[in-house]
Amino acid sequence: MKVVVVDGGGLMGVETALWVRDHGHEVALVQAPGGPHAATSDEVAEALRGCSVVVDLAHQPSAGIGTLSEDHGLVVDEAALVDSWARSTGALLRAGAAAGVLHHVCLSVVGVDRVGSEGVFRALRNREAMVRRSGIPYSILRATQTFDAAEDIATAATEDWIVWVPPAEVRPVSLTDVATLLAHTAVTRPLNGVREIAGPEQFRLDAFVRTALLTDAEYRQVRTDARSPFYGARLRPRDLLPGPDAFIARTTYRDWFAGRPAPDSTS
C-alpha cells in the first residue's frame, strides 16, 4: 500500500513517514504549499498517483500563521487564514479524489470543538469540516500541544520582551508518540470520526512554557494572564484538555526533556 505524507517540512512528517515504512508500506513525503520547498499542484497530483492513503499534517498552530508584533505579539487575520487553509485543503482533497485515495488522515488539535470560533481554531474547524464533507473515508486525529511546541507558543505570546500566557490546563505530548499513532491510523481502517491523543501529565500552559524557557540564554520572563490569546483565541481553563476517550501516550515531559539534544553552546 502506498501512503503519502503531506506536511510543512517539520519533524512530524519525517517521523510519521518512518513509522509508516516500519509498518511495511511504501511511503512518500511531500511538502504542503507555503513552505520553502513546497510541491506544485502537478507534483502533488503525481505523488498521489497509485496512493491509497494521504496523511495531511499541514496547517498546524504556529507563530507563522500571523504577523509578529513587538507590542501585540501574534496578530492573526482570521478571515485570510481560513481562506488560505481552505484553498490548500480543498486542492489536496480534490487531488486525492481524482487519484482514488481511500483514506484521508488529518492531524488537528484538541479543543477545536470548544474553541472553534476564534483565531487558528476557526481555520482548523473549517478544515475538519471540509475533510468530513469530501466523500473520502477519513480519520481526524486531534493532538494536544507537543513538547517541542513550547518555544513557538512563547514566540507567539511575546509582547515587549514579556511572554504572556493564559493559565489553561494542558496535557502536552511527545511528537514521536503522535507520529506513531498517525502511522498506525494511516494503515488501519478509516475511523470516519475523531480520535484524540494527549500526554500522561497535566500542567498549566504558563508553567509548561516557563519550564521550557529555563535556559541560561533565555532573557524573557513568562507571566500569567487569563486574557492573553493563544494563537488568536481566548481560552477557558479546560479548553485544551482531551476527552475521556483520548489515547494517553506514555512519554513524560521529564523523559523527553532529558533526552533532547543539548543546546549548541557555540551559536
From TrEMBL:
Classification via Gene3D superfamilies: NAD(P)-binding Rossmann-like Domain (3.40.50.720)
UniProt xrefs under InterPro entries: NAD(P)-bd_dom_sf
Name used for this protein in its record: SDR family oxidoreductase
Organism for this UniProt entry: Streptomyces gancidicus BKS 13-15
Lineage, uppermost ranks: Bacteria, Bacillati, Actinomycetota, Actinomycetes, Kitasatosporales
